[in-house]
Prior knowledge:
Layout: E1 9-15, E2 19-26, E3 29-37, H1 44-57, E4 67-72, H2 83-98, E5 103-105, E6 111-112, H3 121-124, H4 128-137, E7 143-148, E8 153-159, E9 162-163, H5 170-176, E10 179-180, E11 195-198, E12 201-204, H6 213-219, H7 240-250, H8 260-288, E13 297-300, H9 307-314, E14 318-320, H10 321-324, H11 332-337, H12 339-350
Parallel strand pairs: 1-4, 4-5, 7-13, 13-14
Antiparallel strand pairs: 1-2, 2-3, 5-6, 7-8, 8-9, 8-10, 11-12
Helix pairs in contact: 4-12, 6-7, 6-8, 8-9
Amino acid sequence: MPTPEHSRRVIGWDVGGAHLKGCLVEDGTVRDVAQWPSPLWQGLSHLDAALAQARARWPQGWDGTARHVATMTGEMVDLFPTRAVGVARLASHLGERLGPSLRLYGGGDGWLQPHEAPRHWASIASANWRAAAQLLAAHIGDALLVDIGSTTTDLVAVHDGRVAAHGASDAERLASGELVYQGVVRTPLCALARRVPFGGREVNVMNEFFATTADVYRLTRELEPAHDQHPAADGAGKDDTATRRRLARMIGCDVHDADDDGWLALARAWRAEQLGEILGQLRRVAAASTLPAHAPLVMAGCGAFLGAELAAGLGRSWMRYAQAVQVDGAAARWADVCAPALAVALLADRR
């Protein structure tokens, strides 16, 4: 058996526009999974700060023997003029920070070196959903992957042990319904509905960045505080009073205009709007697939808590991603949230 000093180590990264997610695998076992806020649209210095936190947590990952692999969606942020430029710049930046072992997940194009990124940018760009689905397909022949994150939701069919997506790029997946640009933390509430019920009637919504879905799920007690990593829309607190104040502002009210139960009812109304949208898109994806009726939903992301209701709405069973890919112990909780980082680490370790 290898000594700890000579363990086989792989660190998988998912470089998003809002978070950096990482997974440490040693000798084929998932040792740790973590997420750090990284508002990439504000500059690459935020990615560097997140990588510094990761290095402090996993110093063995920089001992010269560990391999690094990465997938990304961060090329979409408006820091970069085009997605191709974003992929190339991120690949180069990561190569400088992570060392010569770095390989980038390119889907059908395989594992690519940073200098190959400009030529293969379309295969690297926003391919994290495919990595998560590819690992799932190695464990379950038929399933619907539902990864509800802070900002987006990925809906991916896995059939006969292969990824059976209709779209590849973000544009294609938006058209097919496989990419839903809603999440349970950062989505502005004005993106969910034009009107909501309040006080026995329907009221129009203010199209302003006054509140986000984190306010909804914070008030319903479903969003784990550890997943609530970004500032509130107004930069204020995340206590119940501040949260209710933001929800009130969305409909032109102040927090004293209703009691606590009234604001909770409004939060639940926003929740129902989002659940309905995701379920509708999920039905589209399921109908377009050839999956058997017994194929389960496999829930990933910090919004996996919506799994039971989505599965009931579709008449299917469901399970957590960590369970499906056989990750247990302390790492399982964050494995669901950081599924693509986990996936690239395990896929690279097993090749």
